[in-house]
Amino acid sequence: MEHHIGELAAMATAVLWTISILAWTSAGKQVGALSVSFIRLLFASVFLAIYGQTVRGLALPTDATPLAWWLLGISGVFGLFLADVCLFKAFILIGPRLTLLVNSLLPPMAAIFSRVWLGDELTLRHWLAMLITLAGVCWVVMERPDSDDHPHRRRSLIYGVTLAVFAAAGQAVGLVLAKQGIGDYDAVAATFIRTIAALAGFLVLITLLRRWPAIVTASRNGPAMRTVVFGSFVGPFLGVTFYLVALRHCHAGVVATIVNMMPVLILPFVIILYHEKVSLRAAAGAIISVVGIALLVF
C-alpha cells in the first residue's frame, strides 16, 4: 500500500475535486453561478490562511517575491477568475459531466500555450495525443439525443460548450503562468496568491454589474452556503493537499493522468444523483479523452 501512496493520493484528489464540482453545481442552481464563484473563493481563502498559519507560520503569502506575486496574480485572474466565470455558468447550462469532458481540453491547450510562451517542445506523440483528446470531446459534444432537439436546449448546449472551452483556455493560460511564477515557492501559498488575485477580479466585476444585493441574498441562503462551504473544504483545501502528497510520491505524468480522469469518475455520480442517462457513446468519449491525456503527459 505504501508503494502506491502517490497513486492513491492522486485518485483521492480526483474524487474530491469531482465532489466539490457537484457541490458547487448544486449551489449554483440555487443562488447563481457568479455568487457561488465568488463566495467559494472567500471560503477557500479562509482554509488556505489556516493552512498557511498552521504549516508555514504565515497566514498570508507575504514571503513571495514581487515577480511571483505578479505572475501568480495574473495566473489567478485567468485561471480562477475569468475561467471560473465561464466554468460555473457552463456547469449550470450543460451540467458537470459535459463541462468536465470539454474541460479535458485543458492539458492540450496548456501544452500549446507552453510551447508558445515558454518554448517547450512538442513531439509528434504530443500532437497525436491532443488530437485523440479533441476527438473524444467532439464525439460526445456532437451527439444529438432526441431530448436535445428543442431549439432552447440546443442554444443552451452551444452556449455552455463555448463557455467550457473558454474556461479551459483560461485555465491553460493560468497554468502556464503559474508554472513560470511558482519556482520553488510553496504550492499552497502560491494557490493563495492566485485566489487573492481572482477575488480582486470578482470584486471589480460584481461592482460593475451591481450584483452585490444578489451576493448578499445568496449568502443568506443557508442550504446553498453549507453546500458551498463543503465544496470549498473538499476541493481547494483537501483536494490540493492530496494533490501535493501525490506529486511528492509519484511521477507528475501519472498524477496528471489520474486527476484528469474526472470526466470518467463523474459518470456514476451524475447517474445516481441527477438520474442522467449516460449513453455508451458519452462514456466511450470520456475514456478516449482520458487516453489522449495519458499519452500527452507521459
Could you describe the 3D structure shown?
With 298 residues, the chain is mainly alpha-helical. It has one domain (2-297). Helices cover 83% and strands 0% of the residues. It is built from 12 helices and no strands. The protein has helices spanning 5-31, 33-56, 66-103, 106-117, 124-141, 151-182, 187-209, 212-219, 222-249, 252-259, 262-273, 280-297. The longest helix has 38 residues, at 66-103. The protein starts with a helix and ends with a helix.
Brief summary:
The protein is mainly α and 298 residues long.
Largest sheet: none
Task: Count up the domains.
Answer: 1
Any idea what the radius of gyration is? 19 Å
Helical residues, percent: over 70%
Strand content: under 5%
Low-confidence stretches: none
Shape: globular
Search tags:
single chain; 12 helices; 298 residues; mainly alpha
